[in-house]
Design goal:
The strands form 2 sheets. The protein has a 4-stranded parallel β-sheet with strand order 2-1-3-4, with helices on both faces. A 3-stranded antiparallel β-sheet has the order 5-6-7. The protein contains 7 helices and 7 strands; from the N terminus they run E-H-E-H-E-H-E-H-E-H-H-E-E-H. The chain has 2 domains: 86 residues; 51 residues, no CATH class. Strand 3, helix 3 and strand 4 form a beta-alpha-beta unit.
Amino acid sequence: MTLNRIPPKFLADVMLGSLSRWLRLFGFDTLYRNDFKDRELIKISLQEDRVLLTRDRVLARCKILKKVLLITAEDLKGQIKEVLLSIDHITDFLQLPPRCPVCNGPTINIDKTEVIASVPDYIAISNDEFIKCSICQKIYWYGTHKQNIDQTKLNILKSLKMVQE
C-alpha cells in the first residue's frame, strides 16, 4: 500500500506500542492505546482518516477500512522501515518536528527560563535547549538520548536510501 497524504496520521493496534513511540519521535501523529478494541480502531481510522497499523491479518483484511498497513516485520527497525516505505512525497523525514513519545502531543520549543524550576539543577546548568509537550506538559532536553535517537533515525533512513551516506 502506498500512502499519498503528507504527512499521514497513524493509528497503531495493541501489538505496536514501541512502533508508535518511534513514529512519534519521527514526527508522525500516531494514536496508540493498549486497550483499543478492533471496533474502536476501525471507527477511529475512518473518522479521523488515519492509517491503521496492525499485525492482525484478520483486521487488516476488514473490507470497510480505507487505509490499513499490515506490519509483518518482527523487529522494531523492520517495522519502522515498513511504515516509512509506505509513505510518498515526504522529502525529509529528519525535518519533521518530534511529537511527545508519551501522549502524541505536538512539542514546542520553550525558553530555558520557563523550565529552569521544573528540571534538575544539573540539567538546567548543562542544557540550553528544551522542548515541551503542549498536551501533557512533559519537558524534554537534548542529551545523549537525543543523539542516540537521531543516530538510529539516520541509520534507518540510510538503510532505506532515503538520505545520503
